[in-house]
Design brief:
It comes from Candidatus Thiodiazotropha taylori. It contains seven helices and two strands; from the N terminus they run ααββααααα. The chain is mainly alpha-helical. Strand 1 and strand 2 form a beta hairpin.
């Protein structure tokens, strides 16, 4: 599980934004494929200019923990999505709510290097992740079926 400090340290390893952009692209390329069956309306991040889907799932070993799966059709945003998935996954809903994603974006200086429309999209991704985690948390653990990824 990556913490904000670890993510910031990884970003600071690169001296310039060309290196940081390349790092984001590589994070996106390493993101596991999202099954097409999960690319449905409820998982679609509509306000994002890119086509982004994100879904929330319970950890089989510890159902209190939530993890995310996602996909995007643009390289940079897919990298940001991978970073968010890494940061928010394997946490409880309350831990997800407590994370200060704004602080992370400020420390990474993303707002200085991404267009305003991309900012809107990134925050929409965070909102969708929280929305999907909240929806999942409303399902009683005893009523859960095995995930399609099992």
């Amino acid at each position: 599980m990556s913490e904000i400090e670890e993510i910031v340290e990884n970003f600071e390893f690169f001296d310039d934004w060309d290196g940081r952009y390349q790092y984001l692209i590589e994070l996106g390329e390493a993101l596991p494929a999202m099954p097409d069956v999960l690319k449905v309306e409820e998982n679609w991040v509509k306000p994002c200019m890119s086509t982004v889907h994100v879904s929330a799932h319970r950890d089989e070993d510890n159902p209190a923990l939530i993890y995310f799966i996602g996909d995007c059709d643009t390289a940079i945003i897919k990298g940001v999505l991978a970073l968010l998935i890494d940061l928010l996954s394997h946490r409880t809903l309350s831990e997800i709510h407590e994370l200060d994603v704004d602080a992370l974006f400020t420390r990474l200086k993303l707002q200085e290097h991404l267009s305003p429309s991309r900012h809107v999209g990134i925050y929409a991704i965070v909102e969708k992740m929280i929305e999907r985690a909240e929806a999942l948390s409303k399902v009683e653990t005893s009523k859960l079926e095995p995930t399609i990824l099992s």
